[in-house]
Amino acid sequence: MGNRTKKITITALLCALAFAAVSLGRVPVVLFLKYDPKDVIIAISGFIYGPLTTVIVSLIVSFIEMITISDTGIIGMIMNMISSCAYSTLAAYIYKRYHNLKGAVVGLLISSFVTVAVMMLWNYVFVPLYMPVLREDVVALLIPAFLPFNLLKVALNSSLTFLLYRPVVNGFRAAGLIPKSTAPEKKNHKLIFAVVLLILIACVIFILSFNGTLAKIFGA
After folding, report:
1. Beta bridge partners of 28
2. CA nearest to 114, candidates 144, 75, 154
């Protein structure tokens, strides 16, 4: 199997995994906002093959989502692509430029802040276009609902990407789908992994405690 064929195979597999994540892994957080881990898979695809792959996977998955499980039409597809690309493409670009642990951490942090800013803007612009809510209602929800939701989303995505990237890549290498690394083995960064795990646990606790609270406040 040639390298091009292997790349297409892995990209297709990652598209399937990302769609499975969004179709089976949705978790209600507050009001109509739901978290799903598809951007984790998309970010991993970019860490493996670069930022262009994240755009391709985002487009494919968002389109399939639109014609199968989504009821938000083309506007929902555009929002999904904007969200996924803002997060995964920037992270993949930075990691490609600085291909080490620091590059991965910095890439995920910067992309997280950019994604939150972008989604706050696009939630303000797009939500009234595909949902029966007034723009004034969206503005009222920006800080108490959209901001914490988007912060929670990028925290979960970054934690899961950081924890899952290496096992996924090692699995592909063991299957002979991508070349084995020639770089020397790095020391185990136990402190960083411990911090990431704590962030992940904090996010889960936040979802369990936050879910339904704002819905009661706003009468949803």
Report:
1. 34
2. 154
Largest Cα separation within the chain, whole Å, is 57
Judged on CB neighbours under 10 Å (0-12, 13-18, 19+), 100 is: exposed
Angle at 156 between CA 55 and CA 208, to 5 degrees: 135
Q: How confident is the chain (220 residues) per 10-residue block, as mean pLDDT? A: 82 94 85 87 95 96 93 86 93 92 90 93 84 85 87 90 88 81 55 69 65 50
For residue 182, the Cα-to-chain-centroid distance in whole angstroms is 29
Write out the two tokens for 169: 């890549």
Task: Write down the pLDDT at residue 132.
Answer: 79
CA gap 97, 219 in Å, rounded? 47
3-state secondary structure of 57: helix
User: What backbone phi and psi angles, to 5 degrees, belong to 206?
Assistant: -60, -45
Closest among 180, 184, 183 to 172, alpha carbons compared:
180
What is the predicted pLDDT for the residue at 207?
Answer: 64
- At 175 the three-state DSSP class reads coil
Q: Where are the beta strands (DSSP E) in the chain?
A: 27-30, 33-35
Residue type, 218: F
Can you give the pLDDT at residue 31?
Answer: 73
pTM: 0.85
